[in-house]
Design goal:
The chain is built from 14 helices and 30 strands. It is an alpha+beta fold. The strands form 9 sheets. Strands 15, 16, 20, 24 and 30 form a 5-stranded antiparallel sheet that branches. α2 packs antiparallel against α3. The model has no long low-confidence stretch (mean pLDDT about 85).
Length: about 650
């Protein structure tokens, strides 16, 4: 604060008035600034007030805004966790209630009315699970996919269709890392689980294989190589190489004292040698910081290994862009005839005639009406099929060719374990005689004991190798050319082919030759052959709690004690899945609370630092305001005095 000195010498009146007005204006501005500081509580009102403090405050305000947003994210995520916990509690309760009803229904002395009452109990619990699966919070599905706005589960003709997706909501918490705040229907209630996980498709190398896809997805890092024959050295900069073909092309340009290199790509290997095929020193090493030669397993820095240098186990990861001709380790797949997918009693043909890549195969399956979701598991290099309709059986079979087998997704083949038949319950055997009898059209009976057979293929071999089945009238057995099941054929005779299962055996039923409500399977005449086409011996459940409850309701009404027992075990698995998911949500919630506490503490610290940089000391402001007011009063008095001065004052 300053007060302009009173001039002791003679000055002009205009100059004196200008000095006095400047003093008044300065005092008024200073007082206004003090009032602004008192009203806002801020010491720094503009950047020019304190540039250093202002710059520091801008950074602090940015961090405060960030932590405020993190706290808001945490509040929203906590609300989702609480809603998800309530939803999963409903699922747990419904499955527990259904489990109790199933135990009661497993008794064989219940009346039809009692079974109907228990079946209705199961129906109610299924409806509770469906209702929970359709639960929403803040316009987002809790289990049906965070981007799903319509109902995720829909009743259709006694079944339930999944219309949702498996999208998971992510948010940033605490240190900025992404955290899940929703769970999927697959993990919570098993909807949309894979009913078959295919076999590895085995991609092979070609010139277009990307380096990042090689070694089953581990990738090969591009770099710089030095190639030498012991006397001459060539440095190759391959840092821009994108494919193994790029690497091979550059290596082929090498000239070592007139000798060029030959580079050959195998199904999972690369071979480097002299183009003339003659021996000699061939050293390949990585430049400092590079690992290309090491990744390709052709590193030979001292030239001790004689050519050819072979790097193997380089097979690439299967991706959606992988060509069908590169699968099966380079032999390709024959998908000409396509395949069929059975959903319940409906059959859908999948056409692959226009498919060129794995992605085309996936799209063809997903665009069908079979209500199957095909997904490529790139880590395992296989196709997985997920059922979208609960309460029906699924099956994938051939359509006259071998597409399903070559894609590794045929649900029933010769490798199917006997222990997996009868919906994984295995076969019941006849302790007093044969388990299966096939009567040929000429009347010859073929008896089989199946206790030592481990696979369906071994049962097929027993039929083919039976000593009484080696003549021209023999019965031939094979997998059905369309769909799944076992086909028996023989020359025609007086009677059709017949299959029976003596005693307590159920082998004929669960191998698909005898209907469940019949005592024998009877073939028919097809052209010039006697034929018995078996049904699918390993249909797949859609999986999940809803599918289990729908099947349990039917099993209770039918009084199928064996099926009820199987479904009880599945209910236990469904309850474990729901409980684990609920436990995971609880862990997320606990972690969220710790994260939010840390963010809130950080926010308080930042607010404190921002206050130190920006807030005014009110006691100092009030004191300075009072001083400014005294100065203003003095200035005004002086102005009053000087305004009355006349020329007489200078005489």
């Amino acid at each position: 604060m300053s007060l302009l000195p009173v001039a002791t010498n003679r000055t002009s009146t205009p100059l004196q008035n200008q000095r006095l007005m400047y003093q008044l204006n300065s005092d008024q501005l200073a007082i206004q600034r003090q009032y602004d500081q008192l009203s806002t509580g801020r010491r720094v009102l503009t950047i020019s007030d304190d540039p250093a403090a202002a710059a520091r405050s801008i950074g602090l305000q940015r961090e405060v805004s960030r932590t405020d947003q993190m706290v808001r994210n945490a509040d929203a995520a906590e609300a989702f966790y609480q809603s998800a916990d309530v939803t999963l509690d409903k699922v747990d309760s419904a499955i527990i209630e259904a489990r109790g009803a199933a135990v009661e229904a497993a008794q064989s002395v219940l009346s039809d009315a009692q079974r109907e009452a228990l079946a209705m109990t199961i129906r109610q619990q299924m409806e509770s699970v469906v209702s929970a699966g359709n639960g929403m919070f803040a316009d987002h599905q809790l289990l049906g996919g965070v981007l799903q706005t319509d109902l995720a589960l829909e009743h259709i003709s006694g079944t339930v269709r999944f219309n949702g997706n498996q999208a998971i909501g992510l948010t940033k918490l605490g240190d900025g890392t992404q955290a899940e705040f929703t769970v999927s229907a697959a993990t919570a209630i098993g909807v949309g689980e894979p009913f078959i996980e295919g076999e590895s498709l085995g991609a092979a190398l070609n010139a277009d294989t990307r380096l990042i896809d090689m070694k089953q997805g581990e990738g090969v890092q591009a770099g710089v190589l030095t190639v030498s024959d012991g006397d001459h050295f060539v440095e190759l900069d391959l840092r821009q190489a994108a494919t193994i073909g790029d690497v091979a092309d550059v290596l082929r340009t090498v000239d070592l004292d007139g000798r060029s290199l030959s580079v050959t790509l195998g199904a999972d290997s690369i071979t480097v040698q002299y183009a003339d095929g003659l021996p000699g020193t061939l050293a390949i090493k990585d430049a400092p910081g590079s690992r290309l030669a090491s990744d390709l397993l052709i590193s030979n820095p001292d030239g001790f290994r004689p050519p050819p240098l072979v790097g193997d186990r380089l097979a690439p990861q299967v991706t959606l862009a992988t060509s069908i001709s590169d699968l099966n380790n380079g032999a390709g797949l024959d998908l000409t005839d396509g395949l069929v997918i059975d959903r319940g009693n409906q059959r859908y043909e999948i056409d692959f005639s226009n498919a060129e890549t794995v992605g085309d195969v996936i799209i063809a399956i997903n665009r069908s009406d079979a209500e199957v979701k095909a997904v490529l598991n790139e880590t395992a290099g296989r196709i997985e099929l997920h059922a979208l309709r609960s309460g029906v059986d699924y099956s994938v079979g051939e359509n006259g060719g071998s597409a399903a087998t070559e894609l590794g997704i045929r649900t029933a083949d010769e490798d199917t374990l006997v222990s997996e038949l009868a919906r994984e319950r295995g076969l019941n055997y006849n302790p007093e005689g044969p388990d299966l009898v096939i009567t040929r059209p000429d009347g010859v009976e073929l008896e089989f004991e199946l206790e030592d057979a481990e696979t369906v293929g071994e049962i097929i071999d027993l039929i083919r190798n039976h000593p009484d089945n080696q003549d021209p009238q023999r019965v031939l057995v094979s997998l059905n050319e369309v769909g799944n099941g076992l086909r028996l054929t023989a020359p025609p005779g007086a009677d059709p082919i017949r299959v029976t299962q003596p005693g307590l055996s159920d082998a004929g039923t669960y191998l698909g030759w005898i209907p469940e409500d019949a005592t024998e399977g009877v073939g028919e005449l097809d052209g010039s052959f006697a034929v018995l086409n078996g049904s699918d011996y390993q249909p797949r459940d859609a999986g999940g709690a809803i599918d289990t409850l729908l099947r349990l309701e039917s099993a209770i009404r039918d009084g199928d004690i064996s099926e009820i027992g199987r479904l009880q075990a599945r209910l236990d698995d469904d309850l474990d899945a729901s409980t684990r998911t609920r436990g995971r949500v609880g862990v997320w919630h606990s972690s969220l609370q710790d994260s939010r506490t840390a963010v809130e503490n950080e926010n308080v610290l930042l607010q404190s630092q921002l206050s130190d940089a920006m807030d005014a000391d009110l006691a100092s402001v009030i004191s300075e305001l009072q001083a400014r007011q005294v100065a203003l009063e003095a200035s005004m008095r002086f102005v009053g005095q000087t305004s009355g001065i006349t020329v007489l004052n200078y005489l």
